[in-house]
Design goal:
5 helices; four-stranded antiparallel beta sheet; alpha+beta; seven-stranded mixed beta sheet
């Protein structure tokens, strides 16, 4: 099996320095519809990172996979262009060589744009509802599979496959697929699991050659992959709180009082204009009352330098 890490290439820095002419794509994570089922993954947007260590004696690499399923990753400040993935990247792998003492080399050993919108590469995001998948094992799961394309390194295509599994507590999804991974000669010595900040968990499954294509596989246990999450989310219920109802009822009461009072004044006294309104004189005087009150407040704050309202002659 072909190793997934890089080999030094003198043309790497030149390729990465070329400006990307393709515009970045922001995915509509709030309204993902597949097989007639809607998923809202907006809460899962933002940068995430997992890592793993691979050993290819005498080389030992620590690879960091950064990804954002909704928008392209932001460029890191103060980092040379050749040490970061190009603009428009949604999934990026950066490898560092491990020293004998366990520390990382300061300069990246390799930079791999796995998925994104590039010149000559299309992100081409594909969603699959697991319950209707052709795979029997997938059909037993609830959630969706997300495939992201567009990356290429050293003429090899790259792809990221993210399986978002329904897990209302963030860690209840099955671990069955882990048993099937790493059956090749180059087995992973470490798989890092991270929290997603939304009560879920992300696990790196593998990054390896699959039929001539380097594929990154991630498993994401999250409640947002559940098909009925919107009906259970109180923020999506649209219900009013106590204060909303209080002010609504107060407004209706005042409106009813004004309408009823105006009707009585019209029928009993034949009132017109301002005289129709109950306490019309008071309502007309409100601007003057507020003006007098404001003037008193200003005088109080200024320390009352005037003497009884009169000025010296």
């Amino acid at each position: 099996m072909r190793p997934a890490f890089l080999t030094p290439n003198p043309f790497l820095s030149i390729a990465i320095l070329l400006p990307s002419l393709a515009s970045a794509i922001n995915l509509d994570c709030e309204n993902i519809v597949t097989d007639g089922t809607r998923f809202n993954l907006k809460a899962l947007g933002g940068p995430h990172q997992v890592a793993m260590i691979q050993e290819y004696p005498p080389t030992k690499l620590d690879t960091f996979f950064s990804f954002n399923i909704c928008t392209p990753l932001k460029k890191k400040k103060g980092v040379a262009k050749e040490d970061d993935c190009p603009n428009g990247t949604n999934v990026c792998a950066i490898q560092y060589r491990l020293e004998e003492d366990g520390s990382l080399e300061e300069k990246p050993f390799g930079v791999i744009p796995i998925a994104g919108q590039y010149l000559g590469g299309d992100l081409d995001v594909q969603y699959t509802r697991l319950k209707t998948s052709s795979s029997h094992s997938d059909s037993q799961q609830e959630g969706l599979r997300m495939e992201m394309h567009g990356g290429k390194f050293q003429k090899r295509k790259q792809k990221a496959v993210i399986e978002l599994l329904c897990s209302k507590n963030g860690d209840g999804a099955t671990e069955k697929r882990d048993e099937d991974e790493g059956s090749g000669d180059e087995k992973k010595t470490k798989k890092e699991v991270v929290e997603d900040g939304q009560g879920g968990r992300i696990k790196l499954i593998s990054y390896e050659d699959v039929e001539g294509e380097d594929v990154l596989r991630l498993q994401w246990n999250t409640k947002y992959a559940c098909e009925n999450i919107e009906s259970e989310d109180p923020k999506q219920s649209g219900g009013w709180g106590f204060f909303s109802w209080f002010f609504f009822i107060l407004f209706l009461s005042l409106l009813a009082y004004l309408i009823l009072g105006s009707y009585l004044n019209y029928n009993r006294y034949g009132a017109r204009g301002w005289d129709l309104l109950p306490h019309g004189d008071t309502i007309r005087d409100i601007p003057y009352i507020m003006q007098d009150w404001f003037r008193k407040v200003v005088d109080t704050l200024q320390g009352g330098h005037t003497r009884g309202g009169y000025s010296a002659v």
